[in-house]
Amino acid sequence: MRKLTISTAELPAQLDDKARFRVWHDSFCEWVVRCDMKRLSDEPFAMEWTFNELNEVRFGRVCGASRSTAVMPP
Question: pTM for this structure?
Answer without folding.
Answer: 0.70
